[in-house]
Protein backbone atom coordinates (compact mmCIF):
# COMPACT_ATOMS: atom_id res chain seq x y z
CA UNK A 1 0.00 0.00 0.00
CA UNK A 2 1.34 3.44 -0.85
CA UNK A 3 2.27 5.42 2.21
CA UNK A 4 -0.40 7.87 3.19
CA UNK A 5 0.04 11.61 2.88
CA UNK A 6 -2.45 12.09 5.69
CA UNK A 7 -1.00 12.91 9.05
CA UNK A 8 -1.99 9.84 11.04
CA UNK A 9 0.56 9.78 13.87
CA UNK A 10 -2.06 9.67 16.63
CA UNK A 11 -4.16 7.08 14.80
CA UNK A 12 -1.08 4.92 14.39
CA UNK A 13 -0.11 5.19 18.04
CA UNK A 14 -3.59 4.42 19.36
CA UNK A 15 -4.16 1.57 16.93
CA UNK A 16 -0.78 0.00 17.73
CA UNK A 17 -1.67 0.03 21.43
CA UNK A 18 -5.17 -1.31 20.67
CA UNK A 19 -3.74 -4.32 18.87
CA UNK A 20 -2.15 -5.48 22.12
CA UNK A 21 -5.40 -5.03 24.01
CA UNK A 22 -8.11 -6.29 21.64
CA UNK A 23 -8.05 -8.89 18.83
CA UNK A 24 -6.93 -7.02 15.73
CA UNK A 25 -7.19 -3.78 17.69
CA UNK A 26 -10.92 -3.45 17.10
CA UNK A 27 -14.33 -4.28 18.53
CA UNK A 28 -15.68 -5.35 15.10
CA UNK A 29 -13.53 -6.76 12.23
CA UNK A 30 -14.23 -4.51 9.22
CA UNK A 31 -12.99 -1.48 11.15
CA UNK A 32 -9.42 -2.81 10.92
CA UNK A 33 -9.17 -1.93 7.18
CA UNK A 34 -7.89 -5.44 6.37
CA UNK A 35 -9.42 -5.52 2.91
CA UNK A 36 -8.16 -2.08 1.87
CA UNK A 37 -4.90 -2.11 3.79
CA UNK A 38 -3.23 0.89 5.33
CA UNK A 39 -3.73 2.63 8.61
CA UNK A 40 -7.26 2.51 10.10
CA UNK A 41 -8.47 5.93 11.17
CA UNK A 42 -9.15 6.41 14.87
CA UNK A 43 -12.10 8.75 15.35
CA UNK A 44 -12.33 11.54 17.85
CA UNK A 45 -15.76 13.06 17.16
CA UNK A 46 -18.63 13.16 14.69
CA UNK A 47 -21.13 15.86 13.74
CA UNK A 48 -23.64 16.05 10.89
CA UNK A 49 -22.07 14.65 7.71
CA UNK A 50 -18.53 14.84 9.08
CA UNK A 51 -16.06 12.99 11.22
CA UNK A 52 -12.80 14.15 12.76
CA UNK A 53 -9.96 11.82 13.58
CA UNK A 54 -7.55 12.01 16.50
CA UNK A 55 -4.98 13.80 14.28
CA UNK A 56 -7.50 16.53 13.49
CA UNK A 57 -8.29 15.47 9.89
CA UNK A 58 -11.87 16.08 8.76
CA UNK A 59 -13.75 13.70 6.44
CA UNK A 60 -17.14 13.65 4.78
CA UNK A 61 -18.62 10.42 6.08
CA UNK A 62 -20.45 7.86 3.93
CA UNK A 63 -20.46 5.11 6.54
CA UNK A 64 -22.71 6.78 9.10
CA UNK A 65 -21.74 4.29 11.83
CA UNK A 66 -22.81 1.58 9.33
CA UNK A 67 -26.31 2.99 8.93
CA UNK A 68 -27.74 4.43 12.15
CA UNK A 69 -26.66 8.05 11.51
CA UNK A 70 -29.43 8.71 8.96
CA UNK A 71 -30.26 12.15 10.42
CA UNK A 72 -26.59 13.09 10.52
CA UNK A 73 -24.26 12.40 13.42
CA UNK A 74 -25.06 13.82 16.85
CA UNK A 75 -28.24 15.52 15.63
CA UNK A 76 -28.92 18.33 18.13
CA UNK A 77 -32.51 17.19 18.76
CA UNK A 78 -31.40 13.61 19.43
CA UNK A 79 -28.67 14.83 21.76
CA UNK A 80 -31.11 17.13 23.61
CA UNK A 81 -33.62 14.29 24.06
CA UNK A 82 -30.82 12.08 25.37
CA UNK A 83 -29.74 14.75 27.87
CA UNK A 84 -33.28 14.86 29.25
CA UNK A 85 -33.53 11.07 29.38
CA UNK A 86 -30.15 10.79 31.13
CA UNK A 87 -31.47 12.83 34.03
CA UNK A 88 -33.90 9.99 34.74
CA UNK A 89 -31.22 7.31 34.81
CA UNK A 90 -29.54 5.02 32.32
CA UNK A 91 -31.26 1.66 32.72
CA UNK A 92 -34.45 0.41 34.33
CA UNK A 93 -34.54 -3.32 33.60
CA UNK A 94 -38.30 -2.95 33.98
CA UNK A 95 -41.17 -1.80 31.76
CA UNK A 96 -40.79 1.78 30.56
CA UNK A 97 -43.30 3.96 28.70
CA UNK A 98 -40.75 4.83 26.00
CA UNK A 99 -40.90 1.21 24.80
CA UNK A 100 -44.62 1.65 24.06
CA UNK A 101 -43.91 4.81 22.10
CA UNK A 102 -41.19 3.28 19.90
CA UNK A 103 -43.14 0.03 19.50
CA UNK A 104 -46.18 1.96 18.27
CA UNK A 105 -44.02 3.94 15.83
CA UNK A 106 -42.50 0.74 14.44
CA UNK A 107 -45.89 -0.96 14.14
CA UNK A 108 -47.38 2.09 12.40
CA UNK A 109 -44.47 2.23 9.94
CA UNK A 110 -43.56 -1.33 8.98
CA UNK A 111 -46.38 -3.11 7.13
CA UNK A 112 -45.60 -6.65 8.37
CA UNK A 113 -45.26 -5.73 12.05
CA UNK A 114 -48.26 -6.04 14.36
CA UNK A 115 -46.21 -6.73 17.47
CA UNK A 116 -42.54 -6.13 18.22
CA UNK A 117 -39.80 -7.24 20.66
CA UNK A 118 -36.81 -4.98 21.31
CA UNK A 119 -33.30 -6.41 21.63
CA UNK A 120 -29.84 -4.81 21.59
CA UNK A 121 -28.41 -5.56 18.15
CA UNK A 122 -29.21 -6.83 14.69
CA UNK A 123 -27.45 -10.10 15.50
CA UNK A 124 -29.75 -10.69 18.44
CA UNK A 125 -32.82 -9.87 16.38
CA UNK A 126 -31.84 -12.38 13.67
CA UNK A 127 -30.97 -15.11 16.20
CA UNK A 128 -34.32 -14.67 17.89
CA UNK A 129 -36.31 -14.57 14.67
CA UNK A 130 -34.76 -17.85 13.58
CA UNK A 131 -35.84 -19.57 16.80
CA UNK A 132 -39.31 -18.15 16.33
CA UNK A 133 -39.50 -19.29 12.67
CA UNK A 134 -38.62 -22.80 13.76
CA UNK A 135 -41.01 -22.84 16.69
CA UNK A 136 -43.92 -21.54 14.61
CA UNK A 137 -43.47 -24.00 11.75
CA UNK A 138 -42.09 -26.97 13.72
CA UNK A 139 -39.32 -27.21 11.09
CA UNK A 140 -35.57 -26.78 11.48
CA UNK A 141 -34.08 -25.80 8.12
CA UNK A 142 -33.81 -22.26 6.81
CA UNK A 143 -32.76 -20.79 3.48
CA UNK A 144 -30.42 -17.82 3.33
CA UNK A 145 -28.69 -16.19 0.36
CA UNK A 146 -25.00 -16.10 -0.49
CA UNK A 147 -23.50 -12.78 0.53
CA UNK A 148 -26.36 -11.85 2.88
CA UNK A 149 -25.28 -11.11 6.45
CA UNK A 150 -27.62 -11.66 9.35
CA UNK A 151 -25.24 -11.08 12.23
CA UNK A 152 -22.70 -13.47 13.68
CA UNK A 153 -24.85 -16.24 15.16
CA UNK A 154 -23.59 -19.74 14.25
CA UNK A 155 -26.48 -20.69 12.01
CA UNK A 156 -25.96 -17.66 9.73
CA UNK A 157 -22.20 -17.95 9.27
CA UNK A 158 -22.56 -19.73 5.98
CA UNK A 159 -21.71 -17.81 2.85
CA UNK A 160 -22.28 -14.60 4.79
CA UNK A 161 -21.22 -11.22 3.44
CA UNK A 162 -19.95 -8.19 5.38
CA UNK A 163 -16.79 -8.85 7.44
CA UNK A 164 -16.75 -12.49 6.41
CA UNK A 165 -16.56 -11.47 2.75
CA UNK A 166 -14.06 -8.77 3.59
CA UNK A 167 -11.74 -11.19 5.34
CA UNK A 168 -12.29 -13.92 2.76
CA UNK A 169 -13.50 -16.43 5.36
CA UNK A 170 -16.04 -18.80 3.81
CA UNK A 171 -17.12 -19.78 7.29
CA UNK A 172 -15.79 -19.57 10.83
CA UNK A 173 -13.97 -22.14 12.94
CA UNK A 174 -15.98 -22.91 16.04
CA UNK A 175 -19.26 -23.15 14.19
CA UNK A 176 -20.46 -26.77 14.50
CA UNK A 177 -21.42 -28.57 11.29
CA UNK A 178 -24.49 -29.85 13.10
CA UNK A 179 -25.72 -26.24 13.31
CA UNK A 180 -24.98 -25.13 9.76
CA UNK A 181 -26.30 -28.34 8.23
CA UNK A 182 -29.73 -26.81 8.68
CA UNK A 183 -28.74 -23.70 6.74
CA UNK A 184 -29.44 -23.99 3.03
CA UNK A 185 -28.07 -21.36 0.68
CA UNK A 186 -29.01 -20.03 -2.73
CA UNK A 187 -27.62 -17.26 -4.94
CA UNK A 188 -29.45 -13.95 -4.50
CA UNK A 189 -31.93 -13.17 -7.29
CA UNK A 190 -32.18 -16.89 -8.21
CA UNK A 191 -35.77 -18.03 -7.65
CA UNK A 192 -35.19 -21.31 -9.43
CA UNK A 193 -32.49 -22.30 -6.89
CA UNK A 194 -34.91 -21.59 -4.03
CA UNK A 195 -37.58 -23.65 -5.73
CA UNK A 196 -35.19 -26.60 -6.02
CA UNK A 197 -34.29 -26.34 -2.31
CA UNK A 198 -37.97 -26.49 -1.37
CA UNK A 199 -38.46 -29.52 -3.62
CA UNK A 200 -35.42 -31.30 -2.18
CA UNK A 201 -36.47 -30.65 1.43
CA UNK A 202 -40.25 -31.16 1.52
CA UNK A 203 -41.93 -29.96 4.73
CA UNK A 204 -38.55 -29.32 6.35
CA UNK A 205 -37.92 -25.64 5.62
CA UNK A 206 -39.09 -23.23 8.31
CA UNK A 207 -38.50 -20.17 6.20
CA UNK A 208 -36.45 -17.96 3.96
CA UNK A 209 -34.48 -15.03 5.38
CA UNK A 210 -32.89 -12.33 3.25
CA UNK A 211 -31.69 -8.77 3.03
CA UNK A 212 -34.43 -7.68 0.60
CA UNK A 213 -32.00 -5.09 -0.76
CA UNK A 214 -28.52 -6.46 -0.12
CA UNK A 215 -25.98 -4.23 1.59
CA UNK A 216 -23.48 -6.75 2.92
CA UNK A 217 -22.11 -7.92 -0.42
CA UNK A 218 -22.06 -4.35 -1.66
CA UNK A 219 -25.33 -2.75 -2.76
CA UNK A 220 -27.45 -5.26 -4.74
CA UNK A 221 -31.13 -4.59 -5.38
CA UNK A 222 -33.63 -7.40 -6.04
CA UNK A 223 -34.55 -8.17 -9.66
CA UNK A 224 -38.13 -7.37 -10.64
CA UNK A 225 -40.34 -10.21 -9.37
CA UNK A 226 -37.73 -11.76 -7.04
CA UNK A 227 -39.33 -10.68 -3.75
CA UNK A 228 -42.81 -11.48 -5.09
CA UNK A 229 -41.56 -14.91 -6.19
CA UNK A 230 -40.18 -15.63 -2.71
CA UNK A 231 -43.46 -14.57 -1.15
CA UNK A 232 -45.33 -17.00 -3.39
CA UNK A 233 -42.90 -19.91 -2.93
CA UNK A 234 -42.86 -19.62 0.88
CA UNK A 235 -46.65 -19.51 0.96
CA UNK A 236 -46.93 -22.57 -1.28
CA UNK A 237 -44.57 -24.53 0.97
CA UNK A 238 -45.97 -23.49 4.37
CA UNK A 239 -42.75 -21.61 5.20
CA UNK A 240 -42.24 -18.13 6.58
CA UNK A 241 -40.68 -15.21 4.72
CA UNK A 242 -38.37 -13.04 6.83
CA UNK A 243 -36.99 -9.72 5.70
CA UNK A 244 -33.83 -8.75 7.53
CA UNK A 245 -34.31 -4.99 7.42
CA UNK A 246 -31.61 -4.24 9.99
CA UNK A 247 -29.90 -2.14 7.32
CA UNK A 248 -32.82 -1.19 5.07
CA UNK A 249 -35.51 -0.48 7.69
CA UNK A 250 -36.41 3.23 7.85
CA UNK A 251 -33.67 3.82 5.23
CA UNK A 252 -34.92 2.56 1.86
CA UNK A 253 -38.24 4.12 2.84
CA UNK A 254 -39.81 4.93 6.22
CA UNK A 255 -41.53 1.52 6.12
CA UNK A 256 -38.45 -0.21 4.67
CA UNK A 257 -38.12 -2.36 1.57
CA UNK A 258 -41.51 -3.93 2.25
CA UNK A 259 -43.20 -0.55 1.91
CA UNK A 260 -41.12 0.45 -1.12
CA UNK A 261 -41.63 -2.84 -3.04
CA UNK A 262 -45.05 -3.75 -1.65
CA UNK A 263 -44.06 -7.31 -0.67
CA UNK A 264 -45.04 -8.12 2.90
CA UNK A 265 -43.03 -10.77 4.79
CA UNK A 266 -44.25 -12.71 7.83
CA UNK A 267 -41.49 -11.47 10.10
CA UNK A 268 -39.03 -8.57 10.00
CA UNK A 269 -35.80 -7.79 11.83
CA UNK A 270 -34.67 -4.22 12.47
CA UNK A 271 -31.67 -2.46 14.00
CA UNK A 272 -29.35 0.46 13.21
CA UNK A 273 -31.72 3.43 12.44
CA UNK A 274 -34.30 2.48 15.11
CA UNK A 275 -31.64 3.02 17.77
CA UNK A 276 -30.58 6.42 16.44
CA UNK A 277 -26.94 5.58 17.23
CA UNK A 278 -27.55 3.64 20.43
CA UNK A 279 -27.64 -0.16 20.56
CA UNK A 280 -31.11 -1.37 19.53
CA UNK A 281 -32.43 -4.24 17.46
CA UNK A 282 -35.98 -5.51 17.07
CA UNK A 283 -38.01 -8.26 15.51
CA UNK A 284 -41.67 -8.28 14.78
CA UNK A 285 -44.45 -9.64 12.66
CA UNK A 286 -47.98 -10.97 12.74
CA UNK A 287 -49.54 -11.12 16.19
CA UNK A 288 -50.23 -14.83 15.83
CA UNK A 289 -46.48 -15.52 15.45
CA UNK A 290 -45.17 -12.91 17.90
CA UNK A 291 -47.54 -14.16 20.62
CA UNK A 292 -45.36 -17.27 20.82
CA UNK A 293 -42.50 -15.20 22.29
CA UNK A 294 -41.98 -15.45 26.10
CA UNK A 295 -43.64 -14.58 28.38
CA UNK A 296 -46.78 -14.45 26.18
CA UNK A 297 -45.72 -17.81 24.74
CA UNK A 298 -42.95 -20.30 25.38
CA UNK A 299 -40.31 -19.33 22.80
CA UNK A 300 -37.63 -17.99 25.13
CA UNK A 301 -35.74 -14.77 24.47
CA UNK A 302 -34.65 -12.10 26.95
CA UNK A 303 -32.22 -9.21 27.53
CA UNK A 304 -30.91 -7.28 30.56
CA UNK A 305 -30.64 -3.97 28.67
CA UNK A 306 -33.42 -4.55 26.11
CA UNK A 307 -35.82 -1.61 25.83
CA UNK A 308 -33.19 0.62 27.47
CA UNK A 309 -34.61 4.13 28.04
CA UNK A 310 -31.69 5.96 26.40
CA UNK A 311 -31.78 3.72 23.34
CA UNK A 312 -35.57 4.08 23.05
CA UNK A 313 -35.22 7.87 23.34
CA UNK A 314 -32.66 8.10 20.54
CA UNK A 315 -34.80 5.81 18.37
CA UNK A 316 -38.01 7.77 18.95
CA UNK A 317 -36.39 11.13 18.17
CA UNK A 318 -34.70 9.72 15.05
CA UNK A 319 -37.98 8.35 13.69
CA UNK A 320 -39.71 11.66 14.49
CA UNK A 321 -37.07 13.49 12.46
CA UNK A 322 -37.52 11.04 9.58
CA UNK A 323 -41.27 11.69 9.53
CA UNK A 324 -40.75 15.35 8.60
CA UNK A 325 -41.64 16.27 5.01
CA UNK A 326 -39.04 15.84 2.32
CA UNK A 327 -36.59 13.62 4.21
CA UNK A 328 -36.58 10.62 1.88
CA UNK A 329 -36.71 12.91 -1.16
CA UNK A 330 -33.55 14.62 0.11
CA UNK A 331 -31.79 11.29 0.71
CA UNK A 332 -32.76 10.06 -2.73
CA UNK A 333 -31.73 13.25 -4.52
CA UNK A 334 -28.27 13.61 -3.01
CA UNK A 335 -27.50 9.91 -3.18
CA UNK A 336 -28.50 9.74 -6.83
CA UNK A 337 -26.26 12.74 -7.52
CA UNK A 338 -23.42 10.89 -5.79
CA UNK A 339 -23.77 7.51 -7.52
CA UNK A 340 -24.52 8.90 -10.97
CA UNK A 341 -21.58 11.27 -10.59
CA UNK A 342 -19.22 8.49 -9.49
CA UNK A 343 -20.19 6.24 -12.41
CA UNK A 344 -19.83 9.09 -14.88
CA UNK A 345 -16.36 9.94 -13.56
CA UNK A 346 -15.32 6.26 -13.66
CA UNK A 347 -16.40 6.12 -17.30
CA UNK A 348 -14.59 9.34 -18.22
CA UNK A 349 -11.41 8.19 -16.52
CA UNK A 350 -11.52 4.73 -18.08
CA UNK A 351 -12.48 2.50 -15.14
CA UNK A 352 -15.03 -0.29 -15.42
CA UNK A 353 -17.64 0.39 -12.73
CA UNK A 354 -21.30 -0.23 -11.97
CA UNK A 355 -23.55 0.61 -9.07
CA UNK A 356 -26.78 2.12 -7.89
CA UNK A 357 -28.78 3.52 -5.00
CA UNK A 358 -32.19 3.58 -3.44
CA UNK A 359 -32.91 6.45 -1.10
CA UNK A 360 -29.89 6.97 1.20
CA UNK A 361 -28.25 3.58 0.54
CA UNK A 362 -25.79 3.13 -2.33
CA UNK A 363 -22.91 1.16 -3.71
CA UNK A 364 -20.61 0.82 -6.65
CA UNK A 365 -18.27 -1.91 -7.80
CA UNK A 366 -15.10 -1.75 -9.89
CA UNK A 367 -16.71 -4.28 -12.19
CA UNK A 368 -18.36 -4.09 -15.66
CA UNK A 369 -21.57 -5.39 -14.09
CA UNK A 370 -24.34 -6.10 -13.84
CA UNK A 371 -23.94 -7.31 -10.25
CA UNK A 372 -26.99 -9.42 -9.37
CA UNK A 373 -25.47 -11.60 -6.66
CA UNK A 374 -22.39 -12.23 -4.54
CA UNK A 375 -20.56 -14.22 -7.27
CA UNK A 376 -20.85 -11.20 -9.56
CA UNK A 377 -19.69 -8.87 -6.78
CA UNK A 378 -16.59 -11.00 -6.19
CA UNK A 379 -15.43 -10.33 -9.75
CA UNK A 380 -14.73 -6.70 -8.79
CA UNK A 381 -11.20 -5.31 -8.90
CA UNK A 382 -10.48 -5.34 -5.17
CA UNK A 383 -6.98 -3.92 -5.36
CA UNK A 384 -8.29 -1.00 -7.38
CA UNK A 385 -10.97 -0.47 -4.75
CA UNK A 386 -8.29 -0.47 -2.04
CA UNK A 387 -6.28 2.21 -3.88
CA UNK A 388 -9.44 4.23 -4.49
CA UNK A 389 -10.42 3.98 -0.82
CA UNK A 390 -7.03 5.24 0.35
CA UNK A 391 -7.04 8.02 -2.24
CA UNK A 392 -10.47 9.18 -1.11
CA UNK A 393 -9.36 9.20 2.54
CA UNK A 394 -6.44 11.41 1.58
CA UNK A 395 -8.95 13.77 -0.03
CA UNK A 396 -11.17 13.89 3.05
CA UNK A 397 -13.79 11.29 2.15
CA UNK A 398 -14.52 8.35 4.44
CA UNK A 399 -16.00 5.40 2.52
CA UNK A 400 -16.70 1.93 3.93
CA UNK A 401 -13.34 0.13 3.98
CA UNK A 402 -14.55 -2.76 1.80
CA UNK A 403 -15.90 -3.30 -1.70
CA UNK A 404 -18.51 -5.56 -0.09
CA UNK A 405 -20.29 -2.93 1.99
CA UNK A 406 -23.02 -0.48 1.01
CA UNK A 407 -22.58 3.23 1.64
CA UNK A 408 -24.96 5.57 3.44
CA UNK A 409 -25.86 9.22 3.21
CA UNK A 410 -27.75 11.28 5.76
CA UNK A 411 -30.09 14.23 6.04
CA UNK A 412 -27.03 16.29 6.96
CA UNK A 413 -25.27 15.69 3.62
CA UNK A 414 -25.67 18.64 1.25
CA UNK A 415 -25.29 18.92 -2.49
CA UNK A 416 -22.05 20.83 -1.83
CA UNK A 417 -20.74 17.83 0.16
CA UNK A 418 -21.58 15.55 -2.75
CA UNK A 419 -19.89 17.87 -5.23
CA UNK A 420 -16.71 18.00 -3.14
CA UNK A 421 -16.79 14.20 -2.92
CA UNK A 422 -17.13 13.93 -6.70
CA UNK A 423 -14.26 16.33 -7.19
CA UNK A 424 -12.13 14.10 -4.95
CA UNK A 425 -13.26 11.03 -6.88
CA UNK A 426 -12.23 12.65 -10.16
CA UNK A 427 -8.77 13.43 -8.84
CA UNK A 428 -8.30 9.92 -7.39
CA UNK A 429 -9.67 8.07 -10.42
CA UNK A 430 -7.47 10.12 -12.74
CA UNK A 431 -4.33 9.06 -10.91
C1 LIG B 1 -28.72 -6.93 7.31
C2 LIG B 1 -28.03 -7.07 8.62
N1 LIG B 1 -28.48 -7.95 9.52
C3 LIG B 1 -27.89 -8.10 10.72
C4 LIG B 1 -26.80 -7.34 11.07
C5 LIG B 1 -26.18 -7.50 12.42
O1 LIG B 1 -26.43 -6.37 13.19
P1 LIG B 1 -25.47 -5.97 14.43
O2 LIG B 1 -24.16 -5.61 13.85
O3 LIG B 1 -26.21 -4.84 15.08
O4 LIG B 1 -25.40 -7.18 15.31
C6 LIG B 1 -26.30 -6.40 10.17
C7 LIG B 1 -25.12 -5.59 10.52
O5 LIG B 1 -24.51 -4.94 9.73
C8 LIG B 1 -26.93 -6.25 8.91
O6 LIG B 1 -26.48 -5.38 8.02
From TrEMBL:
EC nos: 5.4.3.8
Primary enzyme class: isomerase
Residues with PTM N6-(pyridoxal phosphate)lysine: 272
Biochemical pathway: Porphyrin-containing compound metabolism; protoporphyrin-IX biosynthesis; 5-aminolevulinate from L-glutamyl-tRNA(Glu): step 2/2
Compartments reported by the entry: Cytoplasm
Co-factor(s): pyridoxal 5'-phosphate
Pfam families documented for this protein: Aminotran_3
An individual GO BP term: protoporphyrinogen IX biosynthetic process
Predominant location: cytoplasm
Keywords, ordered alphabetically: Chlorophyll biosynthesis, Cytoplasm, Isomerase, Porphyrin biosynthesis, Pyridoxal phosphate
Top-level taxon in the UniProt lineage: Bacteria
Entry's transmembrane regions: none
Record's catalysed reaction(s): (S)-4-amino-5-oxopentanoate = 5-aminolevulinate
Coiled coil: none
Gene Ontology molecular functions: glutamate-1-semialdehyde 2,1-aminomutase activity; pyridoxal phosphate binding; transaminase activity
One GO CC term on file: cytoplasm
Subunit details: Homodimer.
Similarity remark: Belongs to the class-III pyridoxal-phosphate-dependent aminotransferase family. HemL subfamily.
Designated name of the protein: Glutamate-1-semialdehyde 2,1-aminomutase
Organism: Nostoc edaphicum CCNP1411
Classification lineage: Bacteria, Bacillati, Cyanobacteriota, Cyanophyceae, Nostocales
Amino acid sequence: MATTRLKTTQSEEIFAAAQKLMPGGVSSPVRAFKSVGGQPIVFDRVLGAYIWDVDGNQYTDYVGSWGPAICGHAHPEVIAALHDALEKGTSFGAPCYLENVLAQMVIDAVPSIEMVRFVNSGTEACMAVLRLMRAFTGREKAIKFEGCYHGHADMFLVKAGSGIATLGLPDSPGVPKSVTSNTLTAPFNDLEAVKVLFEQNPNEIAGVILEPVVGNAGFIPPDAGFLEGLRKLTQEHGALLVFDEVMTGFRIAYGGVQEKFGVIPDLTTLGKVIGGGLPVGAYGGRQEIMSMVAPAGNVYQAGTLSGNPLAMTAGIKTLELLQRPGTYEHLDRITKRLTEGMLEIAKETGHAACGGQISGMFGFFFNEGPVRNYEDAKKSDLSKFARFHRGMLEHGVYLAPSQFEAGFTSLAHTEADIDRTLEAARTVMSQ
